[in-house]
Amino acid sequence: MIRRRLVIVGAGPAGLSAAIAAAEAGLDPMVIDENPRIGGQIYRQPPPALPPEGGPPLSSAARRGVDLLHRFHQLRARITVLTETGAWGLFPPRRLAVHATRGWDTIEAEQLILAPGAYEYVPPFPGWTLPGVMTPGAAQLMAKTMHVRPGQRVVVAGTGPFLLVVAEQLHRAGLAVLAVVETVRAVEAVAALPRLLGHLGLLGEGLGYLYRLRRAKIPILRGQVVTEARGDGEVREVVIAPCDRDWRPDSSRRRTVMADTLCVGYGFVPRTQLAQLAGCRMRFADELGGWVPEVDEDLETSVPGLRVAGDGGGVAGALVAQEEGTLAGLAAAHHLGRLDAAAFARARKPVLRRLRRLRRFRAGLDALSRVRGGLSALATAETIVCRCEELTRAEVETGLTFGGTDIRTLKVMTRLGMGPCQGCMCWPAAARWIAARTGRSSAEVGPLSVRPPLTPVSLGDLAREPGFADGPAAEVAP
Ligand SMILES: Cc1cc2nc3c(=O)[nH]c(=O)nc-3n(C[C@H](O)[C@H](O)[C@H](O)COP(=O)(O)OP(=O)(O)OC[C@H]3O[C@@H](n4cnc5c(N)ncnc54)[C@H](O)[C@@H]3O)c2cc1C
User: Fold this and answer.
1) CATH assignment of 2-119+269-366?
2) Topology agreement, domain 2-119+269-366 and domain 375-445
3) pLDDT at position 58
């Protein structure tokens, strides 16, 4: 077993900022991440063999990423980084079980910061399992990071500003972006503008994406929803229909677009499984993407010494993640005696001020693209809902009829969420169906129960002695 004073799970904006703040305060944190390189989702770096993202000028987000990685690497001598190392278990209060290609081990942390980010939400709809249908994040990974075109003719659909980012990146990568299909109607977007004026910089970034898509003559279809992907063995057609305020499609007015790729995503869901395993008290917060751990002002959960930062504690974007990471790193350093009360108070004050402003902006944005009930109408009886267990909607509905009126019971009755993804793909939609069908709130429907291992680990690997065969994996210098 490895013992460390401060361990951080996740090397995205939140985890890196936490490590920077803690190292600057004199700690020697350990950061683990399942990816081969640090940066998380937004600042994901290409494999060392590939050149970095080309094509000047760098976007503001990319510049922020370069800056953050640079600051991190300046403190690298103080920070242990274990890449390609996934945490598959957390045993209370703060003992992680981690797995890598070179072995497995447990890590006991005096202070633990969870910064695991979020995953994309896609409600099941007919054809969503066809090859060629993917999340915007997957297409972004291929085009931007791996320099692989996911297809030729693409429709980008769902909700939120991330669609604009990905549509522009795919256009730049040489794909024909046929349309961006956004469920939020134009009048709603315009009505939300005053609430977004508090952060002109971010608003400007969003409008910049809109402007560049318009200049490239990419249509943005508002108040519309993708209802189906069709094709024999792969996507050939995407069916689009106008939707009402609740995002319920009007299929009588549907039309078809010929496309070989469909990127579809309706925002993000926090990755809370590690916090759940630790026994953190949870609450349901629709505006933050679903179930999140309860935290105090310094991001400490109900488990002493365990903090969550970034999208894993509630989806609020990279800038909030960065500030929360800094706050969590400072708080851990204070707790471990590296910052006295006065120094901690001085350092956290401006962070809290910036966080308040950023969270107000996010609240405006999130109110606009919060997932609405009409999407539940997309899946038909034959639509696969749980991809791992190949359960159809009809089978899930049968479970509901026979008493699966909370998500845990439904899981036991139908095997929903018992496959390798541990319910990440299916439970948000299933929980919404239960709530709609029973008239209960999402809080009453409950979070999906989680069990280790969170990700598949072979028994052969676990049968080996704990320990890493060749020491920690080294992060490649920039
Ligand atoms: C696929 C995807 C693409 C995105 N692209 C953009 C974009 O282009 N522009 C934009 O503005 N926003 C984007 N976002 C949103 C933005 O990335 C997030 O708001 C921001 O990165 C949150 O930072 P974070 O540090 O909380 O999490 P992340 O950046 O997600 O970092 C979390 C890290 O934790 C690691 N991790 C998670 N669980 C474990 C575990 N059990 N063991 C070990 N490591 C673990 C992950 O590998 C990841 O590297 C994207 C989000 C996603 C999901």
Assistant:
1) 3.50.50.60
2) no
3) 60
User: What is the whole-number distance in angstroms between the Cα of residue 316 and the centre of ligand 1?
Assistant: 11
CATH class, range 122-266: alpha beta
Return the higher-pLDDT residue of 46 and 153: 153
Which of 45-49, 51-55, 298-302, 331-335 is predicted least confidently? 51-55
CA of 437 to the centre of ligand 1 (A): 33
Q: What is the DSSP string of 220-277?
A: EEETEEEEEEE-SSS--EEEEEEB-TT--B-GGG-EEEE-SEEEEEE-EEE--HHHHH
Does the predicted TM-score (pTM) go above 0.90?
Answer: yes
**Cα 197 to ligand 1 centroid, rounded to whole Å:** 26
Question: Confidence class of residue 47 from pLDDT cuts 50, 70 and 90?
Answer: confident
Q: Residue ranges per domain, the chain?
A: 2-119+269-366, 122-266, 375-445
Residue nearest to atom 44 of ligand 1 (CA): 33
Pick the atom of ligand 1 nearest to 14's CA: 25
- What are the structure tokens assigned to 64, written together? 């922020």
CATH topology assigned to domain 375-445: Arc Repressor Mutant, subunit A (1.10.10)
Interhelix angle 200-215/186-196, nearest 10 degrees: 150
